[in-house]
Design brief:
By secondary structure, the protein is α/β, with parallel strands linked by helices. The protein has two domains: 94 residues, Elongation Factor Tu (Ef-tu), domain 3 (Beta Barrel), CATH 2.40.30; 129 residues, Rossmann fold (3-Layer(aba) Sandwich). Helices cover 19% and strands 36% of the residues. It is built from four helices and twelve strands; from the N terminus they run E-E-E-E-E-H-E-E-H-E-H-E-E-E-H-E. Strand 1 and strand 2 form a beta hairpin. It is globular. The two termini are 27 Å apart. The model has no long low-confidence stretch (mean pLDDT 95).
Length: 244
């Protein structure tokens, strides 16, 4: 399906971690930003007379407003990140979408396991209201495994920690690869994000996995889970590739 392009204007931006920014835009036409949590939009950027496309997962749940939120990492010398990080309030860019299939299925699952590195956590943040409903109404279980190099880079960790405190069937595993995890993390782990699989008593027929972020992490996790008996339909994937 061809999506009609629309313009978005920067409302605000804030630093989430070193070289990672959260952006809040608003559609200039005032129309509702309708999407399914887990989807992304594509920015249409002009570069030397050519059109450059860069895609970003939406970081907040749809709420009937015209707001558009996403996070982006700074890539030194990267055309898109240089443009985004230097935008000022009121600046306008063109976008299209939403796109993507990294979404919750209509069927209810007994346990959802979300795995992310870097800004790959953003589509899961957008799913929190929908997951709260499934936790409450369907007695589902949800596990978040988030991997970063340092505690300072653990994006939106305060929100996930608060969500875990509010929902008994939600478990949050922050996995830190280059230092000891913060004492603020109840289930903090030292190591790579896929290392926490050993603690989850995995059930290939019942667990539904979401893998988002670094391509190497996704390939390693996918191979590991396939070896453990997971069929491909039980492993939803979306790779984030840094580009100029």
């Amino acid at each position: 399906m061809v999506r009609k392009a629309f313009e978005i204007s920067l409302k605000e931006k804030r630093e989430l971690a070193p070289d990672i920014m959260h952006f809040v835009f608003e559609r200039t036409d005032g129309a509702e930003m309708a999407f399914i949590p887990g989807q992304f939009i594509t920015l249409m950027l002009a570069r030397e007379g050519k059109l450059v496309r860069r895609s970003y997962s939406l970081a907040s749940a749809p709420n009937g407003s015209s707001h558009v939120e996403f996070a982006a990492s700074y890539v030194p010398g990267g055309f898109a990140s240089e443009l985004l990080f230097n935008l000022q309030a009121g600046d306008v860019i063109e976008a299209t979408g939403p796109f993507g299939r990294l979404i919750l299925p209509e069927e209810q699952e007994s346990r959802y396991i979300f795995v992310a590195t870097g800004t790959g956590i953003t589509p899961y943040r957008a799913m929190l209201p929908a997951l709260a409903e499934r936790l409450t109404l369907h007695n589902a279980k949800v596990v978040f495994c988030q991997g970063m190099r340092t505690n300072q880079e653990m994006l939106y960790s305060d929100e996930f920690t608060a969500f875990a405190k509010a929902h008994a069937n939600f478990t949050y595993y922050p996995c830190v690869s280059r230092e000891e995890p913060s004492d603020a993390f109840t289930h903090g782990r030292r190591g790579y994000v896929q290392d926490c699989f050993a603690e989850l008593d995995l059930q290939p027929e019942a667990d539904l996995f979401f893998l988002c972020g670094n391509p190497n992490m996704i390939d390693v996790a996918f191979a590991d889970l396939t070896e453990k008996g997971f069929a491909t339909p039980r492993l939803k994937r979306e790779k984030y590739i840094s580009s100029n």
